[in-house]
## 1
Amino acid sequence: MQAPSVLPASYVAAFSEEEGYLNFASYGPPSNHVLETAAALMADAAQGAVGASGRLHSEDVRARVAFSRLSGFPLDNVALVPAASYGLFQLAFGTQGAVLVGAAEFPANVYPWLRAQQAGQLDVRLMGAADVPVTPELVAEHLAPDVTAVAVSAVDFRTGRRADLPALREVIGEGRLLLVDAIQGFGAVEADWTVADAIVTGSQKWVRGGWGAGAMALSARALERIRPALGGWTGVEDPTTYDAVEHSPRTDALKYGVTNLSPFATGAFAAALELVEEAGIGRIAAHIEASAGFLIQCLDDAGVEVFSPRHVGQRAGIVVAGFPDGNAAEAHAALALAGITATLHGRHRIRLSPHATTGRETLTHAALVLAGFA
């Protein structure tokens, strides 16, 4: 495997997480740029000076502009959300018809669709079962003339398998919407996100911007078809004209807005996105991919079962170790005692997720600890 290009020293120096941190699929420790941005915005708010409110809320535009550049969607097609789940609820309650959803999706990409179905908004059809990822073949089996959209995660949280978005687009055609929960992929993989009709992500995982912000981007087709069913007062024309009249929804992605977001969270999100741009998503993704590959090799050498894809291009930053004897909890406790942070998934799995700043010594150490439980 060819070594990825060197990351800028300024990028590496911006982070200070402990060496044993292997839990970026849960949350990514923010950079000092994020911390400084949030602190500066909080200080501005504390002063309450003339014009402070306008300066604080200008962080929304800064975050949208950076997300537009990284996602490839036009600025007018980008909106901010306080969390990825919020954006998924917007998509679910705004979509009509029959929607295909993987039964093994992370719950955040299942409950919005179920709740919309319960409200009589659409017809949800679950595909597959537990541990069955959404593939073009699975979608093709469930396609029907009345299916209007397919909802899928860019990266499977259980295994780290990447969805083949171009192939899914080819299978469903241009007439149906491809709606993507991108939170386990955005900031970790290099992809053409514009293959999808909508992507939703949060700031707290691979982007490393902390909690409280995220974004969704929509194609022109999605903007036309997905209604702002949950849109609020900030999503209409002339929102500050308080005339006791219902105003028309905006025509851009801001029509899905409900209220003003936290400028501290959106500013932190913007700082994190800009740092990704500065380092280059290609370089970051290549380092994450190389670390995942090296970790799989270490686990193989240690005799630990691996549930994640082995082929480059099929995996992202998640590597799942398997424990057939049901002793994953004991192995997870041993990792913690060794100073290694990971996620326990039931009795049989541990999810490890390195980032571009993860050292190989940490990956080797983790595999050695787990070898005693294989």
## 2
Amino acid sequence: MTASPNAYQRGACLPSSNPFQRLAELLEGESPGLDPIIMTIGEPQHAIPDFTGEVLSKNLAGFRRYPPIKGSPEFRQAIAAWLDKRYSLGGMVDAEHGVLPLNGSREGLSFGAIAARDQLDKGLDHPAVILPNPFYQTYAAAAHVADGEAILLDAVPGNNFLPDLDSLDTELLDRTVAFYVASPTNPEGFVADIAYWQRLIGMARKHRFYIFADECYSEIYRETPPPGILEAAKAMGTDFANIIVLNSLSKRSNLAGLRCGFAAGDPVFLEKWSRFRGLAAPQVPLPAQAVAVRAYQDEAHVVENRRLYNEKFKAAERHLGPILGKVTPEAGFFLWLDVSRWGDGVAVTRSLWTDIGVKVVPGSYLASDQSDGSNPGRHYIRVGLTASLEQTEIALERFANWLGDKS
């Protein structure tokens, strides 16, 4: 396998601060042109499930106990059952050994690379950790804590905003321990198909690395449920070796503050990882696990949550479509907008704040500069549709007028 020229950069410089710190510095001292509307962070604002308080109150005594690191049997069984139903897995998930609770998926994403490095034991001083660019900043933290070399693969429109697997050479793959990929992608909202997942699985098994599949936006889609990596493995007629899928209640159920997620997949990896986590990781409180059990058994609130987001995407098409063309992604709750006609993403972000009071994130702040100076997010902004429909409509109308005035 030969890599395409300039397809990726080794040891690319990672951001020294998070995107929101950089955004605060960019706008420091700047006043909003109109009443501010914040469309930056991906923190859901829809109502939490109405059963949350009831379940917590019934399980308050659980706060007295140190929870088992592997979670309650009820939690593991609920996750296995949900995955089985969602992806038609035919009972393949090992509820005893193939599911672990996490303090939000972020915990697993952050520290999974350490376990991958140690379990593979490739004897490398700085093993490779592959991640997309733009990327969820936690992936970069994972490479750092595993003392790995971050390899950033630009996620661009020509590759459906997914890492280009054709760009990877054998030498790199052989020293890789962890490959991070999100589907639906964050921030772009594109979806990996079964063929993409299966090709990546084949590469992981041939070259001995683990895939950390971030599927946190799996339930925020327009019409068609995104396929998952476990579903792809089943279609191959194989088990879940080399695969760890991560998800949580943050986006699906608007329970970001509960800090309750899971890892599922390769039972051998997860069983060994649970032993390490038993020494180093905080357990997930049993009352939080009880809420998760109920949440994963209920789809009504998820359907309503998805409907609310889709109403806002319809509004985005009405306001921005005539100017920018189709803006609605396959999944997620972000708009990833090419604003190169009006300047780079940083300049547009500053102007949107000072002219119309709408706060967004420059795409370049969600990516990293490559060693050649390029940045795949430079011409983009990310707009979160987490506010109410009313506030979203106001912001989108202001934005459309601003684009029209500047054209």
## 3
Amino acid sequence: MAKRIAAFGEVMMRLQVPGYELLSQASSLNYSFSGTGVNVSSALARLGHTGHLISRLPANAVGDAAESYLRKLGISQSFIVRGGNYLGMYFLENGFGARPSRVTYSNRQESSFNTAPESTYHFAEIAKNIDIVHFCGITLAMNDNVRRHMKDLARAVKANGGTVVFDCNYRPAHWGEGGYAKAKPHYEEMLQLADIVMMNEKDAMFTLGMPTDQIESQEQLMELIPAVAEQYQISVIAGTHRNINGDNTHSLRGFIYKDSSFTFSNLLTFSIYDRIGAGDAFTSGIVHGEIQGFSPEKTVGFAAAAGMLAHTIVGDTPMSSEGDILRAMTEAVGDVER
């Protein structure tokens, strides 16, 4: 049941402050390479599929380092092109207790990916060689040229009989003032092309502007997600709800809406080591479950466990195997595995 899966997205350099120091306190930084597309394609490669990344890296030593890192993650280089001069960067300060983690972006709009000219990618050829393509709302926020790339690729994959996955992942900082109004038509267009969507009730309310009289998030979810699925003819919608507890643990519950029915995972409570990238692990779990033909109960449980494990591993990129995730679904936390 292995599939050829490609993710379209930017490769970024992650510059992490050691421990729980602030950027203003630190005298050193640890670097790695990440991005939603990196995380999803790598996670699915680890789950037994062929993971491709469709992206553009600078033609210099930094691009070489990024390409080497992607190769180590098991990501195919087939659809990566070289050009431009810059790689987008972000600085990560780890949160603790009442202080949240903080991400500060640098040089993103000038990156090789975000300045790629119109003829950079051969979408018709790519579409013939993949089964599933993944897009993220963060990429959608970058600029008009990137948005054209996304939509052209999605249309090419659909025309070739492939599956389109879209993670709404709305980020206010990237869209700027009046962001919801700017974003809405682009989100609507991507939803019309998508088969599997990651979203929750907040995306429906704020990004799509859908009204509800419900007050509680669960009731909002139950009302709005079926309406989105019907309006845009989406076969699967999935997402998570998260609570941050007073003892610095997090609680996570996933849902999947499929065949006009909701299925929820168990509520998982766990300690956090590194939060970045956990949503990509959940997405990868949903996609893998759909590929494997898991029941909705197993799919959402698998995805939630994948998200939980991603919180326990340093770095953005999910590193768990299918066996790791299946064990986490059924076994209590134990001692050293020997």
